[in-house]
Amino acid sequence: MLAGGAEAVAEAAVAAETEHQQPRYMAIWATLAVLTAIEVGVAFLGFSRSVTVLALLGMAVWKALLVAFYFMHLKYEPKALRIMVAAPLIPAALLVLVVLLEY
Amino acid sequence: MTSHAATVDSTAQRPERGLGVYDKKVGMWVFLCSEVMFFTGLIGSYIILRFGASDVWPMPGEVLNVPVTAVNTFLLICSSVTMVKAFAAAEVGDLKGMRLYLLATAVIGAGFVGVQVFEYNQLIHHGFLPSSGLYGATFFTMTGFHGLHVTVGVICIAWVTAKAYRGGYTQEDHEGVEVIGLYWHFVDLVWIILFTVVYLI
């Protein structure tokens, strides 16, 4: 399984060079899968509550950014589109942060 | 009169206007922006309810079957990569590869819905219902709305796959594959957040 994954990553690396500037999709897939496994581990390893929550949120944001930038190829879109997409993140962050400040 | 004609001319010469992105893609992104607020509304409500009732909130894994859902999360990640591979195949004119990757995405996506139905069935069998207090209400509302999005996505991808098998997409024109891909990746992205917030924290 591991060897197969490594092969896939190597293949993706070769493919990424031939398919003019396509991101290394299989490497990103592998990263997402490994991060998911680490998340489940962290949730049950019994670290202190704050460490667990911060680590889990950090990994979730990391995974979300990988999906948005590479699978949704935001990284390669015009700046104007990226600004438009970022716009709802401001009220979204405000909503979550203001609600969190209540507690 | 002449100045008016000149204006029209200069507009016609500009190959890209607005965002420099084709209309269908802009439309999908605008829709996804509204979806960000939809799910943020749910998460905001969840925070209020959870912190307001933190003494009765179960620890991760006490009620929910985390290993099954972790496998399901992996399935959704796999379907996201097959979706993007379908688009990448279309970009280089590999239409056969595009069709196979689209088919795989639809099948794996349907698998996710199947596992979620199995999970719901198990939970309900053990007496955990949307009416089982705030925990049950928030769990079924958040995962239910996400599951509905996945179901809609599977139906749309099946439709796009059928169109692909009828020769509806070419290397030059495969906007439909890219646009449904954006929706599908967004649903995957939302699940990444929900899995952490609902199951692990």
What does this structure look like?
The complex is a heterodimer of chains A (103) and B (201). By secondary structure, chain A is mostly helical. Chain A folds into two domains: 2-72, no CATH class; 77-103. Chain A contains five helices and no strands. In chain A, helix 2 packs antiparallel against helix 3. Chain A starts with a helix and ends with a helix. With 201 residues, chain B is mainly α. Chain B has one domain (21-200): Cytochrome c oxidase, subunit III, four-helix bundle (Four Helix Bundle (Hemerythrin (Met), subunit A), Up-down Bundle), CATH 1.20.120. Helix content of chain B is 79%, strand content 0%. Chain B has six helices and no strands. In chain B, helix 2 (23-52) runs parallel beside helix 6. Chain B is elongated and about 55 Å long. Mean pLDDT of chain B is 91; it is low at 1-7. Classes of the chains: A mainly alpha (103), B mainly alpha (201).
Q: What is the fold's blueprint, element by element?
A:
The complex is a heterodimer of chains A (103) and B (201).
Chain A: H1 2-18, H2 25-44, H3 49-71, H4 79-86, H5 89-101
Helix pairs in contact in A: 1-2, 2-3
Chain B: H1 2-13, H2 23-52, H3 66-91, H4 95-125, H5 133-165, H6 175-200
Helix pairs in contact in B: 2-5, 2-6, 3-4, 3-6, 4-5, 5-6
* Helical run tally of chain A: 5
* Helix content, binned percent of chain A: over 70%
The CATH superfamily of chain B appears as Cytochrome c oxidase, subunit III, four-helix bundle
Count all strands of chain B and give the number: 0
Overall mean pLDDT score of chain B?
91
Number of strands of chain A: 0
Measured distance between first and last alpha carbons of chain B: 67 Å
Structural class of chain A: mainly alpha
* Low-pLDDT segments of chain B: 1-7
Strand content of chain A: under 5%
Largest pleated sheet of chain B: none
Number of domains of chain A: 2
Shape of chain B: elongated
Biggest sheet character of chain A: none
- Give helix % range of chain B: over 70%
What order do the SSEs of chain A take from the amino end to the carboxyl end, as H and E?
HHHHH
What is the CATH top level name of chain B? Mainly Alpha
Instruction: Output the CATH topology of chain B.
Output: Four Helix Bundle (Hemerythrin (Met), subunit A)
Radius of gyration of chain A: 17 Å
| First-to-last CA distance of chain A | 45 Å
